[in-house]
Predict the 3D structure of the following.
Amino acid sequence: MPQKLELTSELKKHFGFDSFKGNQEAIIRDLIKGQDIFVLMPTGGGKSLCYQLPSLLMEGMAIVISPLIALMKNQVDAMRNFSEEDGVAHFLNSSLTKQAIDSVRNDILSGRTKLLYIAPESLTKEENIELLRQVKISFYAIDEAHCISEWGHDFRPEYRRIRAIVNEIGEAPIIALTATATPKVQHDIQKNLGMLDAVVYKSSFNRSNLYYEVRPKTDEVDKEIIKYIRSQAGKSGIVYCLSRKKVEEFAETLQVNGISALPYHAGLDASVRSVNQDKFLMEQVEVIVATIAFGMGIDKPDVRYVIHYDMPKSLEGYYQETGRSGRDGGEGQCVAFYTHKDLEKLKKFMQGKPVAEQEIGNQLLFETQAYAESSVCRRKSLLYYFGEEYTQDNCGSCDNCMKTKKTVEGQELLMLILEIIAELKEKFKEEHIVDILKGNKSADVKSFLHDDLESFGSASDESERFLHGVIRQAMIAGYISKDIENYGLLKITPEGKAFMKKPKPFPVVKDIEIDDEEGDNEAASRASGGGAADDELFSILKDLRKKLSKKLEIPPFVIFQDPSLEAMATTYPVTLEELQNIPGVGAGKAKRYGEEFVKVIKEHVRENDIIRPEDLRVRTVANKSKLKVSIIQAIDRKIALDDIALSKGLEIGELLDEIEAIVYSGTKINIDYFLEEVMDADRVDEIFDYFSSAETDKISAALDELGEDDFSETEVRLVRIKFLSEIGN
């Protein structure tokens, strides 16, 4: 084995680096000694070098089992750049032609290849097993090893078979590497690979150069992201979306708004994916819009921001994807957009899966929700999730630490929570404890007769979000633990038991309230940076709207909603054509009400010598307007709304979102034919009358007034559409 000086000189000779990072040298020494090794190292920590260098120094050929074709191509290209011999590194996967496969086989059998990347699916093929049995294997590297665990964020069943195939090919040391693994996943990996005696190297998960932020996701999300990307001109960024459809739509939206962006997802042709990835790496495009298929092992050190259009399915996924920014130690901005509705959709997608898989998926989603809704330091929450303690009170680089926090004394509430957990013999999950505290008669609470407990409803005046926040903060403080292997049951730690005997102050951070209600102007204005840019003009426009409202005898919101007025007071439209580009204002509304508003704005701009932004409007892709046109045509043909939703691949709520956008923009539509089918005339009249005198168009306010037990949200939304169309348009 090379001595210390020689190992450093080998590093310099093969890769041009003068020194190792972190645990790299110790890992490489142990691997060369023939030991099994488990490496937990954050993205950007230098995992690849831990198997690349020893593969060149050890006798035989190393096999790297990797899940993504993009990763293999990227790393093989890199290895070849460091060597004079192209055959030194190869990959075997489904993307290769027969001729290419023959060339790889020849290089392997001749001993020229020192490093072979192979997908787990290809590893299981009999002809490949036969080929690999003919050569000496120096070691096996299992990259992205979290794929082995059902509790990992990217579970792949083929990974569970790796140990058996390794035994078949020929035993050699194993090095398993991952950037994200909770304690549960770490144990799963080692157990499945038969390496419980492995030397374990854990690096800190703390990426101090990354800034974490979660913003409320509203209808203005496209505009907000475009505005953000424009503020980062000249920098590389990734936008992650959950669906392939959204990736393609949003990439197109960015393109028509003058941003150089390309899509990347597993459904694209392999050659297109490869070209798009290379253009991003070569900085021919600034932004890649992608699903989770993009990024594993992609060696681009200067990604300056990662945006999550949708919250991921797990915190492991979130951590790994955010970890692709700032790998060079420079600036890395991580901005995620969150709405509870997205998580509800993900839960629905899981409904056809086996119960055990649903249970795991729901727990992972619950952790994501807790992270997004918490006001605790983001860094502290993330590191706690990965089993690492962060002791600083303020990290100085997350949205929660950058704003003033409101704390309240939570000693009594924590005592109550601990007493309930103890009374229930530590056999229930967090949601169940919160249901008891709130006095919610859920199916589980009733079946266990827990609505008879003295503590039932003992914290009914607190919000569910706050109660979850207290439990989460008690976990971080070490008073409560969650037994992941047993469906997330809450347990009291020794520190928690000590607290019960001798309570002490427990300050709790009040969580932010993110309101997902449709038409919630307050949330929309928070998301777009706190309302109008010109408060004086906004106030003038509100007065004008009030005056028109009295004159026309219609509620103010029918004319223009607050977000529309805020946008006018930000971009200063001075023609009817420009006014039509304001969110919530279409040609119909501009024509009907716009003249006076444009006149007032023009006067304000002239009097105050305002230089207007040249172009802050978000151009929309034609396909979006195509959908709206086809919905209008279907309604004109009197097709039932549920049938329209089915034909467009939408849920009824999503269809109503589209129809509301149509009527808010000033287009008149008639859904009476559908209302006559699904609602009694007197119910329609009652809701219609409510909106005639209402001060707001909020659904929540309508349900409070009309009675949630008497009317459904869908009924109120349908009649609101009728009202806005008839009265406003």
Summary: The mean pLDDT is 83. The CA atoms of residues 57 and 648 lie 58 Å apart. The chain has five domains: 4-202, 210-387, 404-509, 521-607, 622-728. Residues 404-509 form a domain with the Arc Repressor Mutant, subunit A fold (CATH 1.10.10.10).
